[in-house]
Amino acid sequence: MRQQLAIGDFIFSVYQDTDYETWTRTAESGIATIDRAGQHPATQRTGMPLQTISLNGQILGNTGSSKLDRLRGFINKEPQMVVKGDGTVLDLWTVTRVTETGNRLIDDGTALKTTFQVDLQEYKP
């Protein structure tokens, strides 16, 4: 089965209706600006910040919430191995946030379309 990404045992895949539409990976310089009276601000390298990944997508049907519950379960657990669909191992990452928005609600409140954002932060022991 082809997959886009795996976080631990959670698979993002078109075939499991858990695909994401956008992937954003952010790496920053670790340079801070320090204000100084009467002078230009000074810059100083403060160390390399941890990288982040943000995934955005949607799940159609009434199973979106239960699928995202599995991802929410990673928030308070140990870091998870993240592997891209092409086999690239990104090492350990922590799930820091899962945002879920239900759309097209039916009479019992079940969402037939669920949009989501999953935020990860690189883990360095």
Topology of this protein?
Blueprint (H helix, E strand, L loop, with lengths): L4 E3 L2 E3 L7 E7 L4 E4 L7 E4 L6 E9 L3 H9 L7 E5 L4 E17 L5 E12 L3
Antiparallel strand pairs: 1-2, 1-7, 3-6, 4-5, 6-9, 7-8, 8-9
Structural class: mainly beta
The helix/strand order is EEEEEEHEEE
CATH architecture: Beta Barrel
Mean pLDDT, all residues: 88
Total strands: 9
Give start-end ranges of low-pLDDT stretches.
none
Main sheet: strands, sense, barrel: 7 strands, antiparallel
Rg is 18 Å
For the record, give the distance between the C-alpha atoms at the N and C termini, rounded to a whole number: 32 Å
Question: Count of helices?
Answer: 1
- Please report which band the strand proportion falls in: under 5%, 5-15%, 15-25%, 25-35%, 35-45% or over 45%: over 45%
Q: Number of domains in the coordinates? A: 1
Strand numbers in spatial order across the main sheet: 2-1-7-8-9-6-3
Helix content percent band? under 10%
- Specify the overall morphology: elongated
In the CATH scheme, what's the topology name? Elongation Factor Tu (Ef-tu), domain 3
CATH class: Mainly Beta
Account of the 3D structure:
The protein has 125 residues and is mainly β. The protein has one domain (5-122): Beta Barrel (Elongation Factor Tu (Ef-tu), domain 3), CATH 2.40.30. It is built from 1 helix and 9 strands. It has one helix spanning 64-72, and strands at residues 5-7, 10-12, 20-26, 31-34, 42-45, 52-60, 80-84, 89-105, 111-122. The strands form 2 sheets. Strands 2-1-7-8-9-6-3 form a 7-stranded antiparallel sheet. The longest helix has 9 residues, at 64-72. The mean pLDDT is 88.
